[in-house]
Amino acid sequence: METEAYARDDPASHSYGGPRRRNATMFGPAGRLYVYRSYGVHWCANVVCGREGEGSAVLLRALEPTAGLDAMRARRGVEDPALLCSGPGRLTQALGIDAAYDGLRLDHPPFRLLAAPEPVAVATTTRIGITRASELPWRYVLEGSTFLSRRPRPAAR
DNA sequence: GTATTGATCTTCT
DNA sequence: GAAGATCAATACA
């Protein structure tokens, strides 16, 4: 439901400044998962894209829980589906993703790659939660979704 | 309702 | 020793 793009020549990106130990996965081949520790508390998951050595990735900021709701609730300790995966740290906690998943291919188990069921309406906004280059319009959300990391409104009434 | 802060890890200076 | 692609609890209006 919500993603953010990070590029090589992007001051907010981990790949900014070239390959290092932590961001090695970002510079690997596309289609892998890049997992890192955020603020010492959360895990964040990215999909590596671009060519090998390019160092770009897409941060998964929110998704709509459609399966395994009970497992997600157990891991999160939250009931409301709208709060299960609405944020990068929440998302990884709900899915049980940690450093062990860093570098894994998304087209191999335990993951699966599926085609989008239908065209979706995507809105573009500025990025969130970063201190550098936050003005770049590289955040992409599903139009009208109620599962975003920052709600547009407390449900129209 | 908005604003502030603690938690606590990895990397970099 | 500081900063950071965050979250949730607490403080304040």
Features:
single chain, 157 residues, alpha+beta, 6-stranded antiparallel sheet, 2 helices, 10% helix, globular, disordered C terminus
What does this structure look like?
- With 157 residues, the chain is an alpha+beta fold.
- The chain is 10% helix and 22% strand.
- Strands 2-3-4-1-6-5 form a 6-stranded antiparallel sheet.
- Helix 1 (69-76) packs across helix 2 (88-95).
- The longest helix is centred in the middle third of the chain and has 8 residues, at 69-76.
- Residues 152-157 have low confidence and may be disordered.
- The chain binds a DNA duplex (13 and 13 nucleotides) through strand 2, strand 3 and helix 2.
Structural class: alpha+beta
Q: Approximately what portion of the residues adopt beta-strand conformation?
A: 15-25%
Q: What Rg is obtained from the alpha carbons, in whole angstroms?
A: 15 Å
Shape: globular
- The total of helices stands at 2
Describe the structure concisely for a colleague.
With 157 residues, the protein is α+β, with helices and mostly antiparallel strands. It contains two helices and six strands, in the order E-E-E-E-H-H-E-E.
List the helices and strands and how they pair.
Blueprint: E1 2-6, E2 33-38, E3 42-49, E4 56-62, H1 69-76, H2 88-95, E5 122-125, E6 139-142
Antiparallel strand pairs: 1-4, 1-6, 2-3, 3-4, 5-6
Helix pairs in contact: 1-2
The structure holds a DNA duplex (13 and 13 nucleotides).
